[in-house]
Amino acid sequence: MNNFGHVIKLERVRKNMKQITLAQGICTPSYLSKIENNSIVPSQEVIELLLKRLELSISQNKNLNDESYLKQIREIYFNAVMNKDRELAAIQLKEINTERYLFSDSTNYYTYQLMVLRLTLIVQDIRHDTSELIMALSELSGNFNEYQMFLFNSCVGSYYSFKLDFNSTLQAYEKAITYSQKVNMEKWEEADFHYQLGHCYITQQRWVISIEYIQKSLEFFKNGFFNTRVVECHLMLAVAQDNSYQYEKAYQNLLLAQKIASQLNLKEHFPIITQNLGNTASVRGHSDKAIQYFLESLESRKDNDEKLPTIYSLVKEYSKLKNSQQIIKWAKFGLSLINENQNPGFETFSHHFNVYLARETDQLLFEKTTINAYNFFREIKDYRHTEKYSLLLGNFYYKNSKYKNAAKYFALSNENMFKKNKISCWEDL
Asked: Which residue ranges does the record assign to the HTH cro/C1-type domain (predicted)?
């Protein structure tokens, strides 16, 4: 076994282990450094001791070479990305991680690891391991070619999107754009990236560019009969069009998504479609219809993390109707689901539910809770919600004749509105 230093280095970095720790009792740190740089061929005994310390087993199928194995992984990668079959992707990813194929060429190894990273992001149940792999690959990114830098930054963008850190998502994707312009990607990969960009720009409320990217993706997906992706595009277009006041276009895209999903029995899309139909009804002021859609969406959802956005929609809709009893009911239900799971990713919804609940039950607690929410969203640079909660605090203080505090938070609301819309001068309004 030779030329495997890239494997040792990645696993060492992934385990946050320093060279001196790994080398202790086996070889000198400088010798390990040469191994990791593939500048020497160590003895079989040294190899086995390093692998044992890393708790790493590696196999090498002698019937395959690097290119053949990488081709197999790329086929799995293609199917997972384009068909969105998470269950199949999870099975295949488990097999890949169990096999631990040894690449003799570090370039192929890095491409392989980046595709594994994307697969890990697709398979929701094992996302807890993603941050370690990202940090390890980041440390090694100086060795990446331009295509690998594109893959890496697009994966980092997906990771931050999952974490609801949309500003970091945008930064990573914009780096990926730079590298995508320097490489010849396959059309399917380009279409997938355009979809990711469209979703990202929706979170930034940049509706026009979002629609532009998603329409590019939609055309490719339709021509290739990637029906799951077609449904996703119609859903994303509806969101962007809804928010840019193109209500009829949004509604038509939702109907198209619903028709395709029904014809092909794409059940996993039913909750999202009804959720978005509820959003459209809400924007049009049809609260009763919106609530009906939200309840239908909630009923068809299984996982708690999928239920929380719909519960939040119900809380907001009942708040518009000033139905205190229902606000309290659904906010408490949302918080109970969060408490059951203790997932850090749910913190956003925890703040939302606590604000609405306190607003209906305890005015003293409401002030503290809303300030906490404001500070949380300010910390993650979510300007939409910092604007929302600073405005809510401004109105609260004004109503209670605390005019100095009211003025402070009204000013902060304006400041965050400027940031949200990327406006630097009042003349640009």
From this structure: 8-61
